[in-house]
Structures are given as C-alpha cells and as structure tokens.
Design goal:
Distance between the termini: 43 Å
Number of helices: 12
Shape: globular
Mean pLDDT: 80
Helix content: 55-70%
Strand content: under 5%
Low-confidence stretches: none
Largest sheet: none
Number of strands: 0
Structural class: mainly alpha
Order of helices and strands: HHHHHHHHHHHH
Length: about 220
C-alpha cells in the first residue's frame, strides 16, 4: 500500500487515474493505519490521488475516494502540491479540455460533484475565494471555452457549476464577463441574492432579531 514508483505514484493513484474501481476497492478496504496519509500522498510532480481522478474525469473513482470513511473531503479537494493543481482545478481543466484529448468526453459533472461537497469555512474564506477564482479561471480558459460559454442555452450542470463558484466568491474572468451565458447567470444570481435579502429582512422584522435565516 505504501510502495511508490520512481515518480512517487502509489498503486491507488494508478488505479484512480484509469478508474480501475475493483482494484481501488481492494486497496481502500485493506486495513491500514497509513491509509489516510496515502490518500493525501502527492507524487513527485505534486499530484494527489483525487486530483488525478478529477483531471481524467473518472467520477466513479472520485466517489470511491470521497466516500471512504478515512477520507477528509475538504482537505482532499483543496490540497495541491508543487503542481499548484488541486482536485477542483483539475476537474475544471477536464471540463474545459478538447474532446479529442479526453476519454471520457469533457463534462462538468466531476467538478459539480466536488463543488456540491465543498463548504466555505468563515475562517478560511479569503483563501477559499482565491482557490475558487483559480477554478473559475481554469474552467473559462480551456479549449472548450466557446462550447461551454458562448451560448445562452440552459445547461443544468454547467449553470450550477458557475453559480456555485460565484456563490463561493470566485472572481469572474474579465474576458468572459460579457458573454450571453455569463450575463444571464450573473442576473440570476443577483436576483436570488435579492430574494434572500428580502426574506431575511421579513424574518427579522417579524421576530425582532438580527439573525440571518436564509442563505
């Protein structure tokens, strides 16, 4: 379980990158007190197991890693080694890459899986907002840029990904601010924020308290 090759890759890394799920289950079910550390282990070029699975769109492998009792999903999603590429950034790069360069084909689903499990921690908000901005940048500057963002057609996973990134404090990429897609999403997010504000004001007026009830 702890053996690494010349590049610092573990057996779990190789299995996750190519979605050999049965092999992953055997490795993850192996009783070992070093398993949590091995799940966070980074190769010599700075890639961790979840990042490798995300970069290749292996959503089944990602679920196995994140759902394991030994997993620390928040650390796993945010971790990046010398590569500077976290699992979230890797998933964004997968969504934005050229179809010819990827099997399975590019999709926002791996990134959406991670974002749905992400939680902003108030004490780390500045760092997490910077991280989410890097994710947004990776998503909006890949080869699939036109296919992802140059239309205004509804696309559930894509729309939810961008809304979550904005909710988590990601900065928009200036070159994309005026695309029809981004203008629609920003309008919708602003409308939802206004609804939340009005509901909170109504609750506070009714109860005479300053708590925020609607997030």
């Amino acid at each position: 379980m702890t053996h690494v090759d010349n590049e610092g890759w573990t057996a779990l890394m190789w299995a996750a990158q190519f979605a050999h799920l049965d092999a992953m289950r055997v490795l993850l079910d192996h009783p070992s007190d070093v398993l949590p550390a091995m799940m966070m282990h980074a190769s010599s070029d700075g890639h961790a197991t979840l990042s490798l699975a995300a970069h290749n769109g292996q959503i089944g492998a990602m679920r196995l890693l994140l759902d394991h009792p030994s997993a620390d999903p928040a650390r796993m999603m945010a971790f990046h080694g010398v590569s500077g590429r976290s699992a979230l950034v890797s998933a964004a790069q997968f969504a934005a890459r050229s179809p010819a360069a990827s099997a399975p084909p590019p999709s926002c689903d791996p990134l959406l899986l991670l974002l749905r499990g992400a939680a902003m921690q108030p004490g780390l908000r500045d760092a997490q907002e910077a991280h989410m901005s890097k994710v947004m940048e990776a998503l909006m500057e890949g080869p699939q840029l036109g296919a992802l963002f140059d239309d205004d057609q509804a696309d559930g996973p894509r729309d939810e990904v961008v809304c979550l990134l904005l909710e988590f404090g990601a900065r928009m990429v200036p070159a994309r601010c005026n695309s029809p897609f981004m203008l629609r999403i920003v309008r919708e997010c602003m409308a939802l924020a206004r609804v939340s504000q009005l509901l909170n004001e109504a609750v506070r007026a009714t109860l005479g308290r300053d708590d925020e009830y609607i997030q």
